[in-house]
Amino acid sequence: MNELIQQAKEFGNKLYYSFFRHRFDNTGLTKSKIMFSNVLLHIQPVKIHKRSVKFKTTMGLGLITFYLFLILSVTGILLMFHYVPSTAIGPDGLPDAYSRMLNLRSNVFWGGFLRNMHRWAAHGMVAFVALHMLRVYLAGAHRGGREFNWVIGCILGLLTVFLSYTGYLLPWDQLAFWGVKVGTEIAKIAPGGALIRGILLGDTDVGSEALIRFYVLHVAVLPAVMGFLIAVHFFRIRKDGGLARPANTQNEKQIPDEEFGEVKNNSVFKSARSYKLVEIVKGNEPKVNEETDQMMFAWPKLITRELIVLMGTIAFLSLISVLFDAPLEGPADPNHPTNPSKAPWYFLGLQELVSYHGFIGGIVIPGIMAGGVMFLPYIEIFLETFTKTYRKNIPGVWFARERNLENSLFIGMYLFMLILIIIGVYFRGENWAIVYPWVETAVGGGH
Amino acid sequence: MIKDYRTLLILAFAGFVFFAMSMKKALDQDYVKHQKAYYKALGEEFPGAEIKQVNVKTPSVAMIDRCQSCHVGASNPEAAGFDQPLTAHPSIVPGAETDPHDFAKIGCAVCHDGNGRALEEHDAHGEFHGWIKPMLVGQKAQASCVRCHAMESGHLAGAELYEKGRELFLEKACWGCHTIAGISSSSQAPELTDAGGKFNYDYLVESIVHPKANDENSKMPEFDWVHDEETVMALATYLKGQQKARLRSEDSAPIGYIKPKSDQVRIEKPSVAAGRALFAGAPFEGAIAKGGCVNCHAFRNDDGQLSGGNIGPELTWTMRNRGEEYVKEHIVNSRVHAPDSIMPTFKDYNEAELDSLVAFLSTFDYKLDSASEGQKLYDAYCVSCHGEDMDGQGIVSAMLDPYPRDFSKHQFVISYEERFKDSILNGVGGTAMPAWKNVLGEKEVETLVEFIKQKSLEQAPTNFKRMDVELPKPGDAERLDYKEKGTVIEAGDVARGIKAFQANCTSCHGKLANGKGPSAYALEHPLPRNLINKEFLNQASVSDERLYQSILLGVAGTPMPSHDFLKDQTILDIIAFIRANTEEAE
Questions:
Q1: Fewest 10 Å CB contacts: which of A230, B355, B417, B530?
Q2: CA–CA separation, B41 and B278 (whole Å)
Q3: What is the ipTM of this complex?
Q4: Does A330 contact chain B (CB < 8 Å)?
Q5: Closest to B22 (Cβ–Cβ): which among A106, A322, A338?
Q6: Residues of chain A contacting residue B26, judged by C-beta atoms under 8 Å apart
Q7: Is A92 in contact with B64 (Cβ distance < 8 A)?
Q8: How many Å apart are CA A404 and CA B185, to the nearest integer?
């Protein structure tokens, strides 16, 4: 009997250690092993700076964006099981793609909820990308060797918008058709825009070819490119030494050490810490020799906090998706434009500008903005170098006084776009005339 | 640390709850509740919830119809007293013992539209924004009878509203402007053969009542008879029934209709009575009503009582003013006389029908006492077009093109008063202004002119005076070009005229010189002249001198500005271009 128990224990142990290579006690060794021997190491270091888990540092914005990307991938794949990117008129007299949307709402179990999740997460992702970028800039985290990561981030932001935009067409309803139509008409104004538009649409107008191209871009090309760039984006943050922080964090108020969980030291060498395992790596990785007291184990505090953000995102998104249905209008009809025809909200600022002047509003201003923002850190460096006015950059500090000018300009740009978007969404009615939302509800898309 | 775990736990729980809510929303559907209530009301045992789906296959479409999942008692006579959605459907064919419509076969959406595949009420009834086929409730569903039953002009029991709509369409002369294949052919207004397929019911109602609701530039008049709800509903139901996509071909259509008569009975012998019937849009001796002039045109009886529509000019004096030949031509194609007229083309009328109409119009002989004073004359003859305030905005003016003259502008009256008498006596070609010489005597016209002048100039400043300029003669060495000093003026050149016109005139007069340039939409009254209006430009009073003055000095009291920056030569070129456009073919 005892032997049997012994054998069972042995079997159990072997089973356990085939999954985990560590136990779950509180020793520093185990804590580092949890990170080090799991895939978690690919995302998180064993030890992190204490301020990294503070809400104020990042507000979790980048993380939320990433989680939304994950949620979008999961719900998107589930939706792919049902969706058909075809405009062929089915036996019920409706285009296939649109007919599938109706099915999702009425025939497919849980289909409406999935579509709601996907829709609201997509809009959310565009919004959080913008907020994340704002946070990074205002906290000065785009400088100090992170310039190129900022560029990658900007490309990721553009990809997000483009992903959302390609997905906007897929329901093939009036909202989708005219929203995308407006966007592609704006593209025509740009020099060479007509060619790009032609390549994207595969036709002279939004039609069946455009639908299949947008579909492939949406489900395969863009997510793949995006996944790769996200990996690069995260990797470079690690290689740049984690989240940007000022050189001296001694005087900052930090989360007390107890909050990071008790660490037992079972080592026979009382003075040696198990994290020294990583000290053999060269470079400006977690600086173990300086400020050691500021570095804490990533497990369990950081992982828990990241899970909190994940659960919060999922919970909030589920609630929104239960309460609000994703919009679906009549089937796309190229002969009957909606009045007004509005692009999705993140393009409405652009559309508002275009309504004043096609070339200046549609190409010059957004071009300067997109290009300017993308190369902003280099522009800063260029100006500082050639005018010999080395402005002090304090990474990781919100609204550093030395950067008031830059920050104000950046916030100004955000406000400018925000106001334009609000005007476009709520204050534009038929024939693009000004309406007041408290008098008459603005319709025509944008969501 | 423990706080973090707690937060994580709470959020995970919240996520789980919302997740469960989404599941509940997907599982807990209204039709289950309805079916339970239905079997309870029947006193039967609940056999378990079931989605009752009918697949309606027709040669053109396959419709998925799940309406009876909620409307579970639709074809059960025992459920007649139940509340919606459980109640039985009332008999469709009135008086029939067993209704030939089997809902288990044809479903509900065939007649009632909506979104048949949906199970949620709001969704199924097609109430979401932008859905092409919102549900047709009650009698409106009669619009769908013709989707299967062929009845172009026959009678179908149970489709009374639809039939009334069809009668109205003929009686109210809608057919005069709108084409419905097989009923009318006209290019005046949008074709309605597929009106029901393209537009939803509410849109049709809106377009009938407020034609300008969706298109500000719509020329369709706002009719006064449309404020009766039943009339509008009947007409909208008829129009909703006009759908190109039929569920059955006309040959395989189910029974219950009378095959339309292939050829209409026409009026063969002209008579006043026939003309009266045509004018009123009423059937005459078996002929289908194909008139309805009275919907747009008014007339006075012998007591001066006015009746009829106020979309076109009043017709009391028309025979006397215009003469028989003109009236007939005008009925057949009004654009011969006034190129911008909106009157439909009634080219289908035969000679007898035209004669009948003329005979009827000739019976009007109302006339004022010739000794009447100015105000009275004006109120009888002029006011319907020129308006009570003489501002050219009389009751019928909105649909006239060009607009009636605005006499409230003293600049105009002072400048052109010598033209008034001639215009009244002989009319103005190419416009709605007829020649009054057969109705009004010279003295009455003088009284009228005096009246207009007096009323218009009441508060006018006395110092307004229009310059007098003479048309330069080509080659005149005495009268050189004012602007280009010393140049002898040559005859106008069309090629140069085109260039000058395109450079200076098109924003108002349009590239085609038809008076419909982009800026014309911002002007109110009067609108830019249509310069290819042959009838207008080829009358004696529109001389080259008048054109020269109008271009150089502008037209007083109108939006036409002066063009004294142009060379005399250029103006002559433009006149040559205008003349070349409107030359009468010899």
A1: B417
A2: 58
A3: 0.84
A4: yes
A5: A322
A6: 109-110, 112-113
A7: yes
A8: 72
Range of the domain at A178: 55-243+306-432
Residue A264 has pLDDT above 90, yes or no: no
CB A23 within 8 A of CB A264: no
pLDDT at B585: 58
Interchain CB distance below 8 Å, B128 and A328: yes
Nearest chain A alpha carbon to B63: A92
Let me know if residue A360 belongs to a domain: yes
User: Is A328 an interface residue toward B (CB < 8 Å)?
Assistant: yes
Q: Which amino acid is at B68?
A: Q
Contact A146, A235 (CB under 8 A): no
In the numeric block, which tokens belong to residue B290?
A: 């194909």
Q: At B522, is the pLDDT very low, low, confident or very high (cuts 50, 70, 90)? A: confident
**Domain at A113, CATH number:** 1.20.810.10
Cite the beta strand spans of B153-251 per DSSP E.
Answer: none
CATH code: domain of residue B575 = 1.10.760.10
- Give backbone dihedrals phi and psi of B302, rounded to 5 degrees, phi first: -65, -20
Q: Residue A407's Cα: distance from chain center in Å?
A: 22
How many Cβ atoms sit within 10 Å of the Cβ of residue B375? 13
- C-beta separation of B353 from B267 below 8 A: yes
Please judge whether B18 and A318 are an interchain contact, meaning their C-beta atoms are less than 8 angstroms apart.
Answer: yes
Does B415 share its domain with B323? no
Q: What pLDDT digit, counting tens, does each position of A199-250 carry?
A: 999 888 899 999 999 999 999 999 999 999 999 999 999 888 888 888 777 7
Interface probe with A: pick from B11, B16, B212, most Cβ of A within 10 Å? B11
> What pLDDT score does B397 carry?
87
Q: Is the dihedral of CA A322, A327, A330, A332 positive or negative?
A: negative
Contact B570, B492 (CB under 8 A): no
Radius of gyration of chain A measured on its C-alpha atoms: 26
Tell me which long-range contacts A385-393 makes (C-beta under 8 A, separation of at least 24): A393/A140, A393/A143, A393/A144
Domain count, chain A: 1
Q: Which of B8, B22, B132 sits opposite A311 (nearest CB)?
A: B8
- Among A102, A301, A327, the residue with its CB nearest the CB of B115 is A102
* C-beta atoms of B1 and A305 within 8 A: no
Is residue B557 in some structural domain? yes
Q: Which residues contact B496 (CB under 8 A, 6 or more apart)?
A: B570, B573
Helical spans, DSSP H, in B514-567: 534-537, 544-553
> Residues near A37 by Cβ (< 8 Å), separated by ≥ 6?
A20, A21, A22
Evaluate if residue A428 carries a pLDDT over 70.
Answer: yes
Gap between the Cα atoms of B142 and B92, Å rounded: 9
Q: Which residues of A touch B115 (CB under 8 A)?
A: 102, 106
Closest CA–CA distance from residue A260 to any residue of chain B (Å):
6
CB contacts, 8 Å: B124 with chain A: 106
Contact check, Cβ <8 Å, B15/A328: no
Tokens of A161: 């918008």
The pLDDT tens digits of the residues spanning B365-375 come to 888 877 778 88
**Domain-terminating residue out of B362, B395, B421:** B362
Angle at B190 between CA B354 and CA B140, to 5 degrees: 100
Residue B572 token pair: 């002559």
Tell me if chain B has a CB within 8 Å of the CB of A314: yes
